[in-house]
Amino acid sequence: MSVPAVELVGITKRFGDVTANDGVDLAVERGEVHAVVGENGAGKSTLMSILYGLHPPDAGHVLRAGTRLRLRSPADAIAHGLGMVHQRFRLFPGLSVAENVVLGAEPMRRGVLDRAAARRSVADLAERYGLDVDPGARIGDLPVGTRQRVEILKALYRRAEVLILDEPTAVLTPGEAAGLFRMVRELAAEGVSVLLVTHKLDEVLAAGDRVTVLRGGRVTGRFPTAGTSADDLVRAMIGRSLATAPTTAKKPPATTGALPTAKKPPATTGVPPTAKKPPAIAGGAPYRLEVRDLRVRDRDGVAAVGGVSFSVRPGEIVGIAGVAGSGQRELVDVMTGLRRAHSGTVLLDGRPVGGARDRRVAYVPGDRAGRATAPDMSLADNLLMGDQRGFLLGPGRVRGRAAALVERFSIRAASVRAPIAQLSGGNAQKAVLARELSRDTPVLVVEEPTQGVDVGAQEQIHALLAAARDAGRAVLLQSSELSELRALADRVLVMFEGRLTADLPVAEATDERLGAAMTGATGVRRPAGESTE
Amino acid sequence: MTTFLAAVLTATAPVVLAALGGLLCSVSGVFNMALEGQLLWGAFTAVLFSHLTGSAWLGVAGAVLCTTLYALLLSVPAVTFRADPVVVAVGTNLLALGLTAFLMRQIFGSGGTFSSPELAGLPTLAALGLDAPVAGSQSPLVPVAFLLVAAAAWWLGHARSGLRLRGIGQHAEAAESIGLRVPLYRHAAVLGAGALCGLGGAQLALGNVTLFSEGMSAGRGWVAVVAVMLAGSRPWLGLAACLLFGAAEALGFRLQGLGLPQQAADAAPYLITLLALVVVAAARRKEAPV
């Protein structure tokens, strides 16, 4: 048997009382795509940080092609042929692609930067590995998928033979993700070893050769992907089997609301969204939420939302998909009254939405630390916000209320008085949901409800959203996880460049159709930056 | 006209030197608001060393050295200990004001203004045999200031360390992840700004005039901060902003000769600076993406 390209032996790492890694062994062969999976907090990121020299391990060591390494910094790791693409890209937005790639290892000529050589070697690398990138483009102007390619180029330029990809598809469309995996296979064929850190099991099984599962800092499973099912992985990840699609069983039949205005762009698929209209409980009810020809402009007068119309009935979840920055944010901002529309109307139970945070709308923002919570304030205070009445709060009443919500929504927290920032992603999100759901609003707007949330909490959150729907609320669910939309939504709308390019009943919302609509492949399409008028 | 242009250059030079220092810090990702105090400290130490040694050039060297050391008061807390640079800068500015006034009384035995025939000022270019219409009346530090702007512009674009400094300012974490030692570059930028402020202070106290008076930096460091905010990371734009200020100061001086009250003349450069800030901010707002 050959010597592994890289091997982690007995890695243990503690942060205070928390043991993030506990005697982890992991070996990656040359040219292998090795997936590392586990829930949030399972220790994946810590393990990769140790491999990349960001943290020293408390015990254990790293072998590279059989030789023991001392990794004191990323520079050491780079010098030994390790490269890492972080989940949040580490690129310089104001610099060019070539500058980003060579920075730190610049080609020099007579003591001066050799810009021509930099561009040339970046172009050569891009060509060799089939990565389509313009070396002269400014990073800030590039879409996310391209930026990721720049990150990979950066590692390859430094002669990385072991490439760590941390949650690489979190920011990509399905099409871009497929492209990434083709690239990964190509790199592996060239002899590069790839460590793929992810929590998306279908990706693991599709792109990986072998899988190592972490749970609570320990290895709980090693599988070859051939012959392994997602269920095997889940069992190793959470120590039990997940009830699959927790909400579909009790879900009423999908309802489809005909779009009330004539401005509707044609649906992607040629299947009219109104083709079948099942007699659902919600079918005959009036719309709770109606959006008519909504247009939102950003400061430059460019259309962020360019004429969007749809409606949501009580007891219906409508999903919104789309590549980040397609106007979803602006649309949601108008729904919640946080931004004013340029034209068009949003009606709640027939009356226009008014002012910031209309009390008839519950809103679970995607930006948990920035918008949904005040991170430094206590859990109790965060649970109260937006719902305080009267002049005095009364600390006893506040804590009592908080305790009740913590109990009802099974939020795990050391104390309601501790800052909410100390909670795990899943528990913080449950707290936000608890606050928003505790008010009886007709409309619930949710953005990315399970981003950065562990699998167990995801299940609970999905159940909460389904319960809100069953209680007759109109739910608008914006998510970049297509599987989440499919599990929960009755209909899926797709936004592209500020317009709706698809409106599909969930049964027809396949990856291919959604992916096509997300890139504007069919339907109404306008060049980016064009003004509405 | 030539005397007016000469006055503009004289007024601009100290501000340009301070602004260039601030700009390097800004490029490296440290907001340097300590320029005012460092200019004042530079002016004081220039006069002190000139007086002690009888040589203007040793005065300049002393100012550069002392102000670089003074900049440690900003760089160590702000870079090493990650204190808020704005808060630290406010402290060092106040310290400079008090310390120069105190040391002045201790060393020169009087407050207010210190001037003495033994105090050597910088020679003019004309005295060095380089006579030219506008430049002749300037001290050698004036052309040095403008050359340093050109050097910085070139360096940021073409030198390895310049590129790295820009990268560090844009995304420090990214720079760290490719193995750059971010604090090292930031210390260098802040200390370099100190050296430039030392040079600026020396020009102020030994070039523009030959004396030290309490608080003689008179807001020039603040104008330099504004120039940095206007210029972003583009040295030439910073120079333009400083020239605007210099022109306003020279013009105010002129108008004073024509009967404008002195207070109005003194206020003119700051009013112009404020105006420029508002105009540029408004223009930026228009072009900024949401």
TrEMBL record, chain A:
Pfam families linked to this entry: ABC_tran
Q: What InterPro entries would the database entry show?
A: AAA+_ATPase, ABC_carbohydrate_import_ATPase, ABC_transporter-like_ATP-bd, ABC_transporter-like_CS, P-loop_NTPase
Q: Where is the ABC transporter domain positioned along the sequence?
A: 6-241, 289-522
Recorded hits in CDD domains, A to Z, give: ABC_Carb_Monos_I (cd03216), ABC_Carb_Monos_II (cd03215)
Chain segments carrying region Disordered: 244-282
- Molecular function per GO: ATP binding; ATP hydrolysis activity
Any idea which UniProt keywords this protein has?
Answer: ATP-binding, Nucleotide-binding
Question: What transmembrane ranges does the database entry give?
Answer: none
In Swiss-Prot or TrEMBL terms, this protein is called Heme ABC transporter ATP-binding protein
Q: Which organism is it from?
A: Nonomuraea glycinis
TrEMBL record, chain B:
User: Any stretches that span the bilayer, and where are they?
Assistant: 42-74, 86-108, 140-157, 222-247
Bilayer topology term: Multi-pass membrane protein
Q: Which organism is it from?
A: Nonomuraea glycinis
Query: What broad class describes the main subcellular location of this protein?
Result: membrane
Alphabetic keyword roster: Cell membrane, Membrane, Transmembrane, Transmembrane helix
Q: Where in the cell is it found?
A: Cell membrane
Q: Does the keyword Cell membrane apply?
A: yes
Which Gene Ontology CC terms are recorded?
A: plasma membrane
Report the protein name in the record.
ABC transporter permease
Extract the PANTHER family matched here. ABC TRANSPORTER PERMEASE PROTEIN, SUGAR ABC TRANSPORTER INTEGRAL MEMBRANE PROTEIN-RELATED
Q: Name one Pfam family in it.
A: BPD_transp_2
Give this protein's Gene Ontology molecular function annotations: transmembrane transporter activity
